[in-house]
Amino acid sequence: MLLAEIGDTPYNIILFLHVVAMFVAFAPAFVHPFLNAQTSDYPNRPQIWEAIAVRGQRIYGSALIIGGLLGFGVAGMSDSAISVSDSWVWPAVVLWVAMNGVLHAMIVPGERAIGEGDESKVRNVEIGGVVITLLFLVSMYLMVFKPGA
Question: Can you give the residue ranges of every domain in the chain?
Fold first, then answer.
């Protein structure tokens, strides 16, 4: 017996939390390029990026992990509508793992380095932001259109 079926309140709550967590996780990918441009000549730029790095790992990194885990919950609660054998599910999981890798290996360390005054890492953060945004868009495509399902 399932905890819930598609459209039931528990399913809708998990789906809602999944979407909100992913929305929170990707907010910096859209906001940070503007912050980078606006703070390029600020004398307190390292302190700003140090604060961003701390919050990035604590808030956005956690939201990305929790959002992905909730996605497993959504898939598990959807009975036959979503199956692990669907051709889009495993690529979406791989993309989620890759997004975590880019965030934790490239973006957060780069933000920390900028916070310590190493401006050479700005490009790493920018590239990481572009990569994670592209991975996010591809995963959204997979989840919305479900190719091969």
Answer: 9-145
